[in-house]
Sequence to fold (261 residues):
Amino acid sequence: MSFSLTLLHLYPHELNMYGDRGNVLALAQRALWRGITLDIRPVGLGEDFDPELADIIFIGGGQDAQQIAVSEDLLAFKQKSMSQAAQQKVVMLAICGGYQLLGHYYKPHQGSELRGLSVLDVYTIAGTKRLIGNIALRREDGTTLVGFENHSGQTFLGQQKGLTPLGTVLAGYGNNGQSGEEGAVFENIYGTYLHGALLPKNPALSDELLLKALIRRYGHPKASALMRPLSDALEQAAHHAAIELAHRQRRPQRRSFFSGF
Ligand code: GLN
Fold:
C-alpha cells in the first residue's frame, strides 16, 4: 500500500517572503524519506479548493500590499473552505502575514483593517517599530525553535480554550515584543512569525505536522509506523548554529575598553 498526503499551498506567489516555500519543500522531503508522497497543489488568487482533499494547508508571509489582495481573496473565494478545513482539523501552518490573516484582523499602519478568517483567536495591530532579527523559542516540552522575524504587526492571543502560544521567546521579539510569547497553536492549526524558512532548521516541528496529518488520514498505529526517525545531524547542526546566532545578536554588543577612542 502506498501512502500519500495532499498539501495545499495557498498564494505561493503572493506570500513567499524569505523563501517561506522552503517549508513545503522540507515537508515533502521528510515525507519522501519515509516513502510517503506529498502531493503539493498551489491555490492562488481567485481559486477555491475542496477541504476534503486537504491534509495540510500552508500559507506564507508577505508585505502589507500583498496582504491586502490576499485578505480580500480569502474572504471572497476561500472563507467557507478554510472554515470547513479548520473544523475538520486539517493541519495548517501559517507564517507571519499568513498567520495574521488566520486571526480576526490585521490593522496596518496605513489604510483600513484587513479582515481575517478567525480560525485562530488572535488579532494584530501594526506597531511603530519593525520587529526584526533572528529569533529562538522554547516550547512547552523544552525543545527549541529557531527562525527569522520581520514584522510590524503585534499579535495578541484571545481567550479561546485550547489556544496556546507556539513557544516562549528565548531571544527575539515574538508576537508583540511584550508578552514574551510567540505564535499561536489551536488543535492542528499553527501560526508563527518565524520565517527562515522555519521547517528546514526545525525538523521536529516538520515531523509533528506530518504525524498529525498522517494520524488524521490513516489513524494512529499506521502513522506512527510510517514516521520512523531520520538521522538529522545536518538539520540539528543548523538549528544549534541558529540558536547561537539569535543569542549572540541579542546580547548588547560588548563595548571594548578602547571603543571610546
Ligand atoms: N506585513 C505584515 C507585518 O509587517 C506581515 C509581514 C510578513 O509577512 N513578514 O507585520
Observations:
- The chain has six helices and twelve strands.
- The two ends are 72 Å apart (CA to CA).
- Confidence is low (pLDDT under 50) at residues 252-261.
- Residues 17, 61-64, 67, 96-97, 150-153 surround glutamine (CB under 6 Å).
